[in-house]
Amino acid sequence: LTAYSYCMQHGLFEGSVVTVAAGNVGSGSVVCGVTHCGGKRTLPVTCPYFVSRRADVLLVQESQQLVTSPFTPDTTSELSMKHTPYITVTGTSATVTVGLGTVSGNANDPIHPTANDHFIENIFVVDQNDAVIAMSELSATTSPPSLTFDIPIGTNSMRAYILCNNHGLFQGDAVVVTATTSEASMCELTQCLPDETGVVDGRCVLFDVIATNCLLHQKLMHGTSSPFTPDATSELSMKHTPYITVTGTIARVTVGLGTVSGNPADPIHPTTASTDPTLVHYIRFIYVKDQDGVVVAAVSLTPLSALPYLEFEIPAGTTTLTAYSYCMQHGLFEGSVVTVASKNVGSGSVVCGVTHCGGKRTLPVTCPYFVSRRADVLLVQESQQLVTSPFTPDTTT
Asked: Which whole-number Å values give the CA distances from 268 to 45, 48, 113, 238, 303, in the listed order?
């Protein structure tokens, strides 16, 4: 193995070659995925994604359930017992499950169901300082809903929260911690939306779940069962409308008129991470339907996604495409129908995987992102440093 590091100021540096013993070689192939979802970085205070997503969840609670706080445990309520999160600690590891039946051992006690129209969207855990120490994004393809994580050093107590797409935000009881790991909290999603899911009757299950859930939130938060349609007289509409551009067999969706008009005065949708539910603002999902109403592509985005976009190969048989963008503040917006010429239609079928966490797709020979980005790095090295090769190790400098 040979490692390379690229400094945006000083260029590309190459490390020494490391020989790998046979006993250290894994059994899998290349994992074609860039570490995303927080990047597995240890932060001293807060994780930007965690705090922004938590603010987003609180906004959903206020908009859909008309309350500003989570629902607390109530053993007299079937709804509460079904939605309350429970923390089980084993050594220095903890697991969150949802529903009294997951911990009571009583078959008559409720457990939260998982269905396309009713599922747990998010689980997070806070410590004694109300800092988020673990988080998981889930969908209707995640069953049963759970979150397992290592308890960070300095944790004295924990409390779990879950967001149900139908019934809102619920909190569990505080749990005292007696043992922790020696590591700080990791700023990473312990589980991202599944990258690969099944196809049923020619449709990608996860794609349909995303579209259905966006419409559900549209109804609960904005009082309409339909997306907002383009309106050239409305600043809000022009900022949220998704636009499709086609190059060869690749379609790209961006959000906001300014992404396609070339006019700097035209609006582009912002991405704002914040702990304040009134300030956090980003595109949560983008998805695209074909002429038959089949969702052919989707992306899950975060408050740290600088420019919301979705790029995919146009599946065989496609004649039209319609894009949808879901803003966690302002709802679901529909773009104009785009006619696809036969020369722009690819030869493949729908790729049933949400682009999240880098995609984590294994390709037989090379990963397109890896090889393209490597070429980009070499180009920058030549342009900025006026050399065509990486700098090699030099212990005198």
From this structure: 31, 22, 39, 8, 15
- Token pair belonging to 265: 């005065």
Rounded to whole angstroms, the Cα distance separating 188 from 211 reads 25
Two tokens at 298?
Answer: 């989707």
Beta bridge partners of 244: 253
Element containing residue 173 per DSSP (H, E): none
Q: Report angle CA 316, 321, 325 to the nearest 5 degrees.
A: 130
What is the C-alpha separation between 42 and 375, in angstroms, rounded?
30
Q: Which two tokens stand for residue 354?
A: 């949400």
Distance, in Å, from the CA atom of 382 to the CA atom of 386, rounded to the nearest integer, reads: 5
C-alpha distance from residue 177 to each of 93, 126, 155, 159 (Å): 10, 12, 7, 11
CA 174 from chain centre, in angstroms, equals 27
Q: Note the pLDDT tens digit of each residue in 308-353.
A: 899 989 999 999 999 999 999 999 999 999 999 999 999 888 877 6
Q: What percent of the chain has pLDDT over 70?
A: 84
Angstrom distances, CA of residue 70 to CA of 3, 33, 113, 167, 291? 47, 35, 20, 11, 41
Q: Are 355 and 310 in contact (CB under 8 A)?
A: yes
Instruction: Record the tokens describing residue 120, joined without a space.
Output: 């747990």
Alpha carbon distance 121, 34 (integer Å): 23
Token readout for 137 is 């994004």
Question: Residue 324 in contact with residue 214, Cβ under 8 Å?
Answer: yes
Q: List, in order, residues 6 or more apart from 266 with CB less than 8 Å away.
A: 238, 256, 257, 258
